[in-house]
């Protein structure tokens, strides 16, 4: 297995408003290997990048993504809640992130946020865009909705898919295979050394989230996980350099 990849969680979200182009660009400038981002489907079928099902927390306005059109969403300010210097940062489309990733050679972890709201057609819409930007070979699709991953696997078995989970699962590689997923994205406390070893034996890459503490970074680098998802890109890059992993 090669060097552990550094994936910027919602972009470089400790330094810029999460899931905005500012956060994605900053991650690229800091030399992250890739980006993690969350996607939803708008009322008019566009794929947009935001964590929550509603725009409330990051824009202060009311409304669910699925009830708003892209035009309505694009008028919102998703930057100033974080700091005044990001006033007017819009909610990006998936196309914008794909274009940046294709241009900069970044890896992508697109998280399908369809575990609370189902968004029929989200999988197809994302797959179509991956092909359009030539990013299918450098992207993993993850979700807490494992039925959605099964749908992706049925549509496109060549695409890397990852089960996201929080529970301390026993031998999760069996379950991942049962779903049809090709990798696992565990909540970091559940990424026990034995789980990482078992997954590697089964040929499944492991990419824990969201790892912000230095000692955890060190442990996971030591067991050679395929990637680590973090809010602190530079901290993880420094740790990787120091350990030579
Ligand atoms: O994809 C890893 C991580 O982003 C999952 O949790 O809530 O930050 O999207 P959340
Ligand atoms: Mg996420």
UniProtKB/TrEMBL annotation:
GO terms for molecular function: glycerophosphodiester phosphodiesterase activity. InterPro entries: GP_PDE_dom, PLC-like_Pdiesterase_TIM-brl. It comes from Desmospora profundinema. It holds the Pfam family GDPD. Gene3D superfamilies: Phosphatidylinositol (PI) phosphodiesterase. Residues 4-240 form the GP-PDE domain. This is Glycerophosphoryl diester phosphodiesterase. Its EC number is 3.1.4.46. Keywords: Hydrolase.
């Amino acid at each position: 297995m090669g060097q552990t990849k550094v994936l910027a969680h919602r972009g470089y979200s400790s330094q810029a408003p999460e899931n905005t182009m500012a956060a994605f660009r900053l991650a690229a400038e800091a030399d992250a290997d890739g980006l993690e981002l969350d996607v939803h489907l708008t009322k008019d079928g566009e794929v947009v990048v935001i964590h929550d099902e509603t725009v409330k927390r990051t824009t202060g306005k009311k409304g669910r993504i699925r009830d708003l059109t892209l035009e309505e969403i694009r008028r919102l300010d998703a930057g100033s809640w974080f700091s005044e210097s990001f006033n007017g940062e819009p909610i990006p489309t998936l196309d914008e992130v794909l274009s940046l990733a294709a241009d900069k050679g970044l890896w992508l972890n697109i998280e399908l946020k369809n575990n609370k709201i189902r968004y029929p057609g989200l999988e197809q819409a994302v797959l179509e865009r991956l092909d359009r930007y030539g990013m299918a070979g450098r992207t993993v699709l993850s979700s807490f909705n494992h039925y959605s991953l099964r749908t992706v696997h049925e549509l496109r078995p060549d695409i890397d898919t990852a089960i996201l989970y929080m529970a301390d699962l026993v031998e999760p590689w069996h379950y991942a295979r049962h779903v049809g997923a090709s990798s696992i994205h565990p909540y970091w406390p559940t990424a026990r050394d034995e789980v990482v070893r078992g997954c590697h034996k089964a040929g499944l890459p492991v990419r824990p989230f969201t790892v912000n503490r230095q000692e955890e970074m060190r442990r996971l680098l030591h067991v050679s996980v395929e990637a680590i998802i973090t809010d602190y890109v530079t901290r993880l890059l420094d740790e990787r350099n120091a350990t030579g992993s």
